[in-house]
Write a sequence for this structure.
């Protein structure tokens, strides 16, 4: 009961703050962002101290090295958060932009104007930088934010949130604009996602289980960043040297992220020439290859790709490979097993490339480029709050504009409906 | 079990059709829409015959005259559906439109291109014209549609859906693009809303109970058309003659629709001059007035507005009236009791009007005009599939563009991520 009341109190406070934040000017928001950056700098030692508590506990509990690394803060990582806030200051304020304007035959002037969503609930796991990055993006887009981080980073997140919330308030933003849920009890999520009267959108940043749990328990709209089962299709008309560079980059440059390639499809007409060289390069880089029957005929001795390999997001140096008989087979495979994230074709055939871009139902579709470019900064949106793999509201990288809604402001001089 | 399988079969068929529909050209879609219009004309007698069965049953079961009227079809109403489809033909095809284009420093060209959502589920009550109107809008925007109408109109809806689905298929659209759920068992809705792997969005068109039921039982994004508790605020600097015309229109011209005014707020500085004349005109038109204490001091003998009057959507010739001391009181009242649909200020004070447009958190905010204009056609969007009172994805009147998503089509020449 106490937990529930605490969550309601925080959500209601965020809503009140959101009503004020919606009409706060760019200068005031930027001033607050810079104050938040300065406060992180000033409180660095305290933040690192609290982080040590989390890191020690994580090691003790046997968390994997990779997860301990994600959790660990140092001067450089706090510096990145500070830099991130400063970059958000430089981004154009999306609020108040007139998206379209029309004057109707009856003289009514109708402006479609960008406004904030209101209160954004961020439910995230692990990396403490999410606390700062998402709060900064929400404030710049005029939204209040409720943060609920994972238990393993509780002390770090709490200290970061307290630091930036106090700085934002002292710099003149409404009280309560940044809320942090201090308990990591899963019940806190249950209570939070019930509050559709206060919270306008929930953005889960975490694994599939978290997303599934939230979607099943809330009426609030959810924008989720699902998995990235990304493909590259090497067409019969591909420049094979280019294909090699693109496929190598898409798998190896940073395998642990959502826009890395997980399955490579190769047209049978070039497989014999392309696969052995490509495989050698992958194996030199430590990539484990798993192929279908036709691939195994060419690449002897690699593992067999099983049905479940086609739909899995490895996030590791593992690659599934399939030789396809036709362009259509590639398209069908991607639309069947992919996650509508990012998929690429390598070909010199313009018509086929354009067909691919139309037929593949994914957020980002590439012709002759690495899938690794699906990212807010690479798209020119500035920082991103996530990459949406759904079609409603926002798709692909989400920047400031994707954290907004709009309203119609209508100017009349006495018009009545006939 | 049989019901469940039937629903799954229909949803899967719609998804398959949607994949094809996404890349069908404008001419083919328009040809199908015209074929649907012609088929309605040709099958008019059969449709009217089936409708009679529904109307007779409705009368027998004691449905109110208003509801029987909503259900009843005649030559004119079928003519309106036919005309509606022809108007959709004239609307610009939203699919394929390039919403923005950018070339990045690395040479990647990124086009943001409008695409369909996929499969739209429409769950509606009463009026059979929804069957035809929504199917037409969905097809034109490249979406497949699953229709589930109310039990009282089952025979009419089924006949309409069969007619247009057959015509669309014969005209060359993919099989299964228009699906109709033949059972009106509520269990059918339960099964339908589980199918997030096939259905991309649910649009409920009906009362609050229906919306609530759906939102509580689905993971699929829902775009809902909530109630319209619309306000007009008559400011101290209003042109009172203009205010009278606007307030009369907003309440009386068509009281049964969502953009009609339900509460009138009047600044105390003009209440004494404005209210008696306005009240006389309302009472002559048969409007029942309910006032707060200050209103009752001026308009003796009218009913008292109770707390619940401020949040109710009368959809009838009833009006709640409140005298406010300040502009701020009006803003606070509207944001507290309103439904974020449509609200207006009447004033000659430009600064105050602009403050109102910013501070009121509603889909449509008006300066010196009737709230009755919130409508797709009046906004120049063409036909509408509903008016969203939420902030995610679409807000206010929803036309073809609001039934769409987008994708990023990216053109490279070998770019890899550094």
């Amino acid at each position: 009961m106490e937990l529930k009341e605490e969550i309601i109190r925080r959500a209601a406070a965020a809503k009140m703050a959101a009503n004020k934040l919606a009409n706060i000017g760019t200068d005031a928001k930027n001033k607050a962002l810079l104050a938040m950056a300065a406060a992180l700098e000033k409180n660095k030692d305290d933040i690192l101290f609290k982080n040590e508590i989390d890191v020690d506990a994580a090691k003790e509990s046997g968390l994997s090295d990779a997860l301990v690394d994600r959790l660990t803060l140092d001067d450089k990582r706090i510096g990145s958060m500070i830099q991130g806030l400063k970059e958000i200051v430089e981004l154009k304020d999306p609020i108040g932009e007139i998206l379209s304007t029309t004057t109707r035959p009856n003289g009514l002037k109708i402006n479609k104007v960008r406004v904030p969503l209101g209160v954004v609930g961020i439910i995230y796991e692990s990396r403490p930088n999410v606390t700062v990055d998402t709060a900064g993006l929400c404030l710049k887009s005029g939204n209040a934010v409720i943060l609920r981080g994972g238990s393993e980073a509780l002390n770090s997140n709490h200290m970061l949130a307290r630091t930036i919330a106090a700085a934002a308030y002292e710099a003149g933003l409404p009280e309560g604009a940044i809320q942090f849920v201090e308990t990591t009890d899963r019940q806190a999520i249950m209570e939070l996602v019930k509050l559709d009267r206060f919270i306008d959108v929930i953005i889960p940043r975490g694994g599939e289980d978290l997303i599934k749990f939230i979607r099943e328990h809330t009426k609030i709209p959810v924008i989720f960043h699902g998995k990235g089962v990304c493909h590259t299709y090497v067409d019969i008309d591909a420049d094979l040297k280019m294909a090699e560079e693109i496929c190598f980059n898409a798998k190896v440059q940073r395998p642990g992220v959502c826009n890395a390639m997980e399955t490579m499809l190769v047209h049978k007409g070039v497989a014999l020439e392309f696969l052995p060289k490509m495989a050698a390069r992958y194996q030199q880089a430590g990539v484990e290859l798993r192929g279908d029957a036709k691939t195994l005929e060419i690449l002897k001795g690699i593992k067999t790709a099983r049905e479940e390999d086609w739909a899995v997001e490895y996030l590791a140096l593992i690659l599934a490979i399939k030789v396809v008989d036709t362009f259509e087979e590639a398209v069908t495979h991607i639309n069947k097993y992919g996650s509508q994230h990012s998929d690429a074709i390598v070909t010199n055939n313009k018509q086929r490339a354009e067909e691919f871009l139309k037929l593949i139902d994914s957020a980002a579709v590439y012709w002759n480029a690495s899938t690794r470019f699906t990212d807010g900064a690479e798209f020119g949106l500035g920082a991103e709050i996530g990459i949406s793999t759904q079609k409603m509201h926002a798709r692909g990288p989400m920047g400031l504009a994707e954290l907004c809604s709009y309203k119609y402001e209508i100017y009349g001089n006495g018009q009545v409906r006939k």
